[in-house]
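Researcher: Re-running this chain for the archive, since the previous output was lost when a drive failed. Same request as before.
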Amino acid sequence: MYIIAGLGNPGREYERTRHNVGFMVIDELAKKLGIRVTKLKFKSLVGEGNVKGEKIILLKPQTFMNLSGEALYEAVNFYKINLENVIVVYDDKDLDVGKIRIRKKGSSGGHNGMNSIIYLLNSEEFPRVRIGIGNPGEDLVNHVLGEFTEEEKKIIKQATEKAAEAVIDIIENGIEHAMNKFNGL
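Model: Regenerated structure tokens:
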């Protein structure tokens, strides 16, 4: 069993912002796999499905970014799942727009949603798929809560599709395979 959590902020005003790229990947996965992510559970919108016989839970925390750990903590404890089967998908300001980076584990890199998850799970030992949103320099808040430019939207559309493929690849072939195939794209 796998839990795939895409990070973002709830509400229409945040829908197309850079910080919601994790939600965008969950939406892409849901579309590819025919899963409806509409049930409210674990302080999240949740959908259930299967990938090659593995049960998967798609999770879009509705707690706002800084409290993402609350939602993931509830789901992980409910299903008693190993952290190596928890995949977190989120935006990364330190990667160029649309670049994908997969890691087995690691620090939060200053990302507040990841800070919350690492704190509440008491571990950095879970896979993550990061999607670059570019570095704003000084004005981080307006950057992450701002929408992509028209040019960036095309790049991000491709990146969310690739990130969804990467998540499926992690489940089907393991994280090493996915890292070799998708890192740097």
